[in-house]
Fold this protein.
Amino acid sequence: MANAPNNVNRPTIGITMGDPSGIGPEVIVKALSDPHLRRKARFVIYGLNELLAYAADQLEYDPYWYRVQHDSNRTNKLITENVVVLDFDEYDGFIQSPRGPSKAGGIASKSFVEEAIIDATRPPDHPRHIDAIVTGPICKEAWHLAGFNWPGHTELLAYRTKAKRHAMMFVSPRLRVVLATTHLPLMDVRNVLTIGKVFDPIDLGHEACQQLGIEVPRIAVTGLNPHAGEGGHFGDEETRIITPAIEVAREAEINVQGPFPADTVFVAAASGEYDLVVAMYHDQGLIPVKLLGWDQAVNWTLGLPIIRTSPDHGTAFDIAGKNKASAGSITAAVEFAIQLASNQRAAHAGAPSQRREPAA
């Protein structure tokens, strides 16, 4: 499914549906219904044509895609349509199924992303090569019911691509945040944190900001404990782990400060004092991102040899199939993936890349 001759300058973006019982089909159909967005790239959707057609019917949209069976020999030949659905119809039947976590949903959603990873790692001249992956929301409980031990997309992608380091970064109009730890029980965070675990997101986040056009990123690092430990009265992780990681980053000529109390540093970052905040754990970083950038934030996996973005929301089973889901976040994820893929293609061609201005 390589770019057709008239699409030669456009990247090919793969989009995985996520859990079939969630809002993935609806938000994908809504996002790509915009002709302006469709003109920016080619799109390959990994999922169920049945659910996409059902969502389009509810929205009173005419289908705008070309369907092909995902394991058909036709996928190894040039397909020129701008939007292609790789149909995993062996998993059909979700329209009649109850909305919620299920073993079937876990198996299907993991199959979608596994095939997208294979295509993203193919040689650029392969007919099935894609330039980036945008992942629709999965249900981690469904993956567990299906017997998969991966905490989420991030860890699976890092393992499949043999990434030595990786981090979750969230990009929104007012905040950029990268996490030192990802999908862990809160009680386990202090046992997992090391100097390297804190240094890596500082370093990867620094490189990511430079990719976005910020030549000298200003990075702030949060503490783990209330008041950043209050001089050791509320924990010693700040002095024992976080401060040494910051010092290592400074020796690498990274402009980084901290550790700061997490209840104040995001205010400073949102006001423009910092270009990036490194947070110690999932909710510490995600609460301010979603509070200030709901429906606009994008998850970007750093450290991978491939490009992966995703919306910052979950499956929303409670509103799935009811035409209530907003496509704002997945549209932002698609737009961001196009930007990153275009920059990568331009860099390989020696042309100027597209730069994004720092958030105000």
Summary: The longest strand covers residues 42-47. The chain is about 40% helix and 15% strand.
